[in-house]
Amino acid sequence: MLKDATLAHEAPPEAAAGAAQPRPDPDMREAILAKLRFAVGRDVSAARDHDWYVATALAVRDRVVERWLDSIARTGPEKKHVYYFSLEFLIGRLFFDTVSNLNIVGEVRQALAGLGVDLDRIRAVEPDAALGNGGLGRLAACFMESLATLDIPAFGYGIRYDYGLFRQAIVDGWQHEIPEDWLSFGNPWEFERPDIKYLVRFGGSVEMVGRPDGTIQHIWHSAETVVAVAFDTPMVGWRGRRVNTLRLWSARAADPLVLEAFNRGDHVGAVADRMRVEAISRVLYPSDATPAGQELRLRQEFFFTSASLQDLLRRHRERHPDFSNLPDHGAIQLNDTHPAIAVAELMRLLVDEHNVRWDEAWRITTATLNYTNHTLMPEALETWPVELMERVLPRHIQIIYLINFLHLESLAKNGEISADLVRQVSLIDESHGRRVRMGPLAFIGSRRVNGVSALHTELMRKTVFSDLHALYPDRITNKTNGITFRRWLLEANPDLTRLLVEAVGPQVLDDAEALSGLERVVGDPAFRDRFVAVRRRNKERLAQEIAARTGVKVDPAALFDVQIKRIHEYKRQHLNLLETAALYAAIKAEPNRDWTPRVKIFAGKAASSYVVAKLIIKLAYDLAQVINNDPDVRGRLAVAFLPNYNVSLAEIIIPAADLSEQISTAGLEASGTGNMKLALNGAITIGTLDGANVEIREQVGPENITIFGLTAPEALARKAEPDHASRAIAASPRLASVLDAIGSGAFSPDDPGRFAGLVGGLRDHDPFLVTDDFDAYWEAQRGLDELWHRPEEWWRKSLLNVARVGWFSSDRTIREYAEEIWRVPVG
């Protein structure tokens, strides 16, 4: 977090209440007009909103480029770079983010107004760059912004997908996936670098050739070559202090057209190889339900990892005579196991391509790489069939075998080996058809391995990496996730930002922990009323969005109960839905009771091949159809599932949420960042003691968060009881009734058996302990109903959440990475 005494008082014109309006900037106006005419090719009279957006973006981009080039120029050869490898970068819209970070919102607004154009209207034209699936990709975007804000030289490396995460359409309650063609109108923020390209190889065979000194050289004769072409996007830090580079790779064929085949009339066959190659960067997360899909996923991961390593090694050699000091000048962070093949590829490049001795290459590799783990579920830690890797990456499987041999041999020398230990720590899993285990590979090949919340890190030590932790006790460290407050407060909630600046001072714009100053006014009725008025406006805006997207009309005065995240059984949207059905039944049974009016708001996407997750979406839709059309509960309960959840929709939902649902099975959510965004904007959390909920409770105080359900150790023990679900259902008449209703078709009269499988799974084994936590969840919700009827107390808790979550800034997280993992100076 910046604490620059000068910058702290240069509040953006639109953030500081009462600030004088900026004078129109003729330079910005003329720049926009010039871009409209000469870059877009439109006259003012013919320009449409998208034309104005592109022209304005290009005019702003010119100012970014000046700072970008300056940032590069002042990063000398002695400076250490951070290289962030991530298969996902969920950056969302960049236009307003960039304008805000450059502190030129006012002048851009004024320049456009002078041309009869509304800034807010054209900013909505920009498509979301949906190059991620959820928290992992959004975290990467927040980290890129904080790296620049803290003046740390950095490159983000990923894939420039032609189609981002699918656009979700809900048709009769069922999710349908539609290609997200975010590049259909071009991308004014990126720079194609056709001169920066690398060959990425696949398949073939490996030849061993003896050298004069008696050593063996491995020569990889690949069967296929793909060209990785760089596309650079400048990532602007707060106040424009530094601009770093997000470099995304696009896959191109070395020979885009087989001319001989084309001239023979085989017009399709002439481009077949090109289509296969370019599929690598075509779609984010292609389904891996088929062998072809699995191979494409592996090809994607190796493609961007190899190109990125080649790029940073080339840059290093331009400045240094050899690679011996690479760890002193570069730190690579692997965001989950997707780029874990970097361990083998960096070894290959050093040993095979640059003739570095194996032991020296291993020293360099393990001192340069670091690995962030994002999951405790063994099935989510990537593994690849040995047969697939032998076919696609034949040299790399050899390297992995050798790494594994030397690893196990070192244990044997230390007397720490046993058959059971070998099974646990070997890089090759022999129990499931011989598979390469990417999590342990990343662990062994990295200097530091970090979890993303205190609980998650401790569970890593005790569960998925317990044996490796015993062997390398100093390797695992914790770095609790954070969010960039610039996006999730200043931009998403400008009215609240103005109020905070008035109450705390402009320093709150630069130092997230200055939010603590808000505690001085939480008891002030006048301030509380203004806070409630801000929230009301945000809720009215969300109510309009709900009506536009779903046709459901909701009352902004109701409690907005929000669960927005990827649809997954462990995140337990179905627990929320069971409680919704039970609440509906209770209201029907006691219609004259003073029920707290609630709007249950859901949003999120299910993986295309995840059948149960799609069924959960359908259940939400079916519940909504019944509940929203029942006059007996009108004004007391409504349900809305908002389709196509993305960053832009989140920016509308989060400032309007009263209640934040963070109800994953304890011990399974690594961290969460949605919980932080919602608390920052004033939502009270209802959740389990899971992920960063633990630290949120510590920061905001246990009295300002609602915790329920089994703890992680209790959940682990309960899962081991074979009849836990049946016992929980037998002990809860309310739960039994709800399961009977859903399972028998009370909410799906057109198909009474639609949810029988979902209910049967809960009755039979319930691996995510929905039944065990149901009653505790119900009671916690009723306690919140009572709290809602005590508005002074509710809003006090809401304000204290805002005041006490400054610690969850991604600036703090990046500062910790920089000091304790990457060993780079900050600022």
Automatic annotation (TrEMBL):
Pfam families noted in UniProt: Phosphorylase
Subcellular location, record wording: Cytoplasm
Residue numbers of N6-(pyridoxal phosphate)lysine PTMs: 677
Keywords tagged on the record: Allosteric enzyme, Carbohydrate metabolism, Cytoplasm, Glycosyltransferase, Pyridoxal phosphate, Transferase
Coiled-coil positions: none
EC number of this enzyme: 2.4.1.1
Region (Disordered) residue spans: 1-25
One example of a Gene Ontology biological process annotation: glycogen catabolic process
Catalysed conversion reaction: [(1->4)-alpha-D-glucosyl](n) + phosphate = [(1->4)-alpha-D-glucosyl](n-1) + alpha-D-glucose 1-phosphate
Keyword RNA-binding in annotation: no
Enzyme's top EC category: transferase
Main location group: cytoplasm
UniProt-listed SUPFAM superfamilies: UDP-Glycosyltransferase/glycogen phosphorylase
Cofactor(s) needed by this chain: pyridoxal 5'-phosphate
Extent of Low complexity compositional bias: 8-22
An example Gene Ontology CC term for this record: cytoplasm
Chain's role: Phosphorylase is an important allosteric enzyme in carbohydrate metabolism. Enzymes from different sources differ in their regulatory mechanisms and in their natural substrates. However, all known phosphorylases share catalytic and structural properties.
Protein name: Alpha-1,4 glucan phosphorylase
Source species: Enterovirga aerilata
